Amino acid sequence: MARTRCYRGGVLTDEDFPLDQVSEHLGDTSAVVWVDLCAPDLVDLQLVADELGLHRLAVEDAAQGRQRPKFDRYAGHDFLTAYTVLLDVASGRLITGELAAFITPAALVTVRREDTFSIDALVARWDDEVDLTRFGVGALLHGLLDFVVDAHFDAVESLDDQIEELEDLLFDDRPHDQSVQRRSFELRKSLVQLRRVVLPMREVVNTLMRRDIGLVPDELMPYYQDVYDHVLRASEWTESLRDLVNTILETNLTIQGNRLNVITKKVTSWAAIIAVPTAITGFYGQNLPYPGFAHQGGFLTSSILIVALSGALYLTFKRKDWL
């Protein structure tokens, strides 16, 4: 279903009017129109394209989806693609929602491929900043970008919390090798996916802020600068978390190797201790005469040797921290 709004002088004057009335509302030079299409068919998309004179290539990109975050310029309008993200903490999977936007001097058209993009939250953000809507499409676009970038920031923060929990699990007294490896793989996969949608936003927002584009009024420039600052922080944070996950994987392998060395050292020490009574009883079990053969003294001698040598080895290994 299509959702529409019309602002005049920064004030909301009309809502949920039919798509074929878009051009009628735009007949007023003070009007700014917003149109939202969720999983539209080609008929609805083409209707809006005809109403606003949208370029065929931009319409195809919006219809096909799976575009990288970008900002393209066409005659009469601009085209923007961005993604909102949400981290599923239980599975570590990153849920993305693609959004395409057509930007004209008096209209903003958003196209969503699925309902994962919370359009109600975006509208609520616009309603909370009614003092900015008087600046027209630039204000609506700022609210859209701020909403998308905040979602990126929240996802990065959630990933940071999950990686901290992974670090605690890594140095737990009980081994969690398989859990650490599986969780590291899940988070690393989500980070790679997040990086693909976060890093290109630097170029998108930076291009929008260019004065030759003429899309951002001087009054809105500080707000766009704030969004750009959040984009940079999210990008740098994503890169640092990516390196941190790789470090956790390497550290886990190192801990496994150290643990194996400790186990090997202990097993070898006990094997050396056990070898003493084995060697002595083997010697005194020979089927031939030897000192103490068939005498009680021979048994006492072998017992004393076993206890003394085994005890000496145990104390030596214990002092060297091998046991």
Automatic annotation (TrEMBL):
<keyword id="KW-0472">Membrane</keyword>
<dbReference type="Pfam" id="PF01544">
    <property type="entry name" value="CorA"/>
</dbReference>
<feature type="transmembrane region" description="Helical">
    <location>
        <begin position="297"/>
        <end position="317"/>
    </location>
</feature>
<dbReference type="GO" id="GO:0050897">
    <property type="term" value="F:cobalt ion binding"/>
</dbReference>
<dbReference type="InterPro" id="IPR045861">
    <property type="entry name" value="CorA_cytoplasmic_dom"/>
</dbReference>
<keyword id="KW-1133">Transmembrane helix</keyword>
<comment type="similarity">
    <text>Belongs to the CorA metal ion transporter (MIT) (TC 1.A.35) family.</text>
</comment>
<dbReference type="GO" id="GO:0000287">
    <property type="term" value="F:magnesium ion binding"/>
</dbReference>
<keyword id="KW-1003">Cell membrane</keyword>
<dbReference type="GO" id="GO:0005886">
    <property type="term" value="C:plasma membrane"/>
</dbReference>
<dbReference type="GO" id="GO:0015095">
    <property type="term" value="F:magnesium ion transmembrane transporter activity"/>
</dbReference>
<feature type="transmembrane region" description="Helical">
    <location>
        <begin position="267"/>
        <end position="285"/>
    </location>
</feature>
<dbReference type="InterPro" id="IPR045863">
    <property type="entry name" value="CorA_TM1_TM2"/>
</dbReference>
<dbReference type="GO" id="GO:0015087">
    <property type="term" value="F:cobalt ion transmembrane transporter activity"/>
</dbReference>
<keyword id="KW-0813">Transport</keyword>
<keyword id="KW-0812">Transmembrane</keyword>
<protein>
    <submittedName>
        <fullName>Magnesium transporter CorA family protein</fullName>
    </submittedName>
</protein>
<dbReference type="InterPro" id="IPR002523">
    <property type="entry name" value="MgTranspt_CorA/ZnTranspt_ZntB"/>
</dbReference>
